[in-house]
Write a structure and sequence with these properties.
This protein has helices spanning 31-42, 57-65, 88-99, 117-129, 143-152, 171-180, 199-208, 212-222, 234-240, 250-257, and strands at residues 8-10, 16-18, 22-23, 47-49, 75-80, 104-109, 133-139, 159-163, 183-187, 225-227. The chain is an alpha/beta fold and 261 residues long. It has one domain (8-257): NADP-dependent oxidoreductase domain (TIM Barrel, Alpha-Beta Barrel).
Length: 261
């Protein structure tokens, strides 16, 4: 199988989203976030994933603005938190102001709230139609929640961001996303470091002369996912970006697939 992978993926609204991003969850607002984002952009990342809940949108925006990289070359994602579901447009404007940017590339519903799924998606569509965001999507949606959204959507979600790694993910959601041309975006693809010493992954990593982290990220790319590994260490940020110059063969991909519990 041909596993050649471009650095971007085309969304269902034709926007092009970088397949590799930096996640900044639990990185403190201020210098720590500014440094992590700056290091990532210097290392070639062109995708930064934040959220209102992370409380570091201001530092993400500052690092993006001061990077010297044209704004249109950097994909910035943020998310609306459930307490703001009754006034999504206001929450969006607040995030935009904190980021200090003219527009946001991707705006996500951070978590689904039963009973509000249809209403909030209507608000998300209104934001999209305003032209202040390139794409809209969801996060942590199960199969039924995705179907409910699609059933009532005039603009389908472009992305569903889910916790996902070699060791565990919702395959039914993944398959539905593939069927509906919704990008499946993996957060915590490195298991927050908990399984980087797995024996099978170590064997495969040795074969390709790569790190375990690089193998886990490459596996996700070859599953047609977008990945947003989090790190605030410069060396790891650089290492995590070095995943486009090798291909995991079909046999090793199957071995990795079999690690899912």
């Amino acid at each position: 199988m041909d596993w050649k992978i471009d650095s971007t993926i085309t969304l269902n609204n034709k926007a092009k989203m970088p397949r590799l991003g930096l996640g900044v969850y639990q990185i403190p607002n201020g210098q720590a976030t500014e440094d992590a984002v700056s290091w990532a952009l210097q290392a070639g990342y062109r995708h930064i994933d934040t959220a209102k809940f992370y409380r570091n949108e201001a530092s993400v925006g500052k690092a993006v603005r001061e990077s010297g990289i044209p704004r249109e070359q950097i994909w910035v994602t943020t998310k609306v938190w459930p307490i703001d579901f009754m006034h999504v447009e206001k929450a969006f404007e607040t995030s935009l102001r904190k980021l200090g940017l003219e527009y946001i590339d991707l705006y996500l519903v951070h978590f689904p709230i039963p009973g509000l799924i249809k209403r909030i998606w209507g608000n998300m569509e209104a934001i999209y139609k305003s032209g202040q965001v390139k794409a809209i999507g969801v996060s942590n949606y199960n199969v039924q929640q995705l179907k409910d959204t699609l059933e009532n959507a005039s603009i389908p979600p472009s992305v569903n961001q889910m916790r996902c790694s070699v060791f565990g993910y919702n395959r039914e959601v993944y398959e539905l996303c593939q069927e509906q041309n919704i990008v499946f975006e993996a957060y915590s693809p490195l298991t927050r470091g908990k399984q980087l010493d797995n024996t099978e992954v170590a064997k495969i990593a040795k074969h390709y002369q790569k790190s375990a982290a690089q193998i886990l990220l490459r596996w996700a790319l070859q599953k047609n996912m977008v990945v947003i590994p989090k790190s605030q260490h410069q060396a790891r940020i650089i290492e995590n970006a070095d995943i486009f110059d090798f291909v995991i063969n079909d046999t090793d991909m199957q071995t990795l697939d079999n690690l899912r519990t």
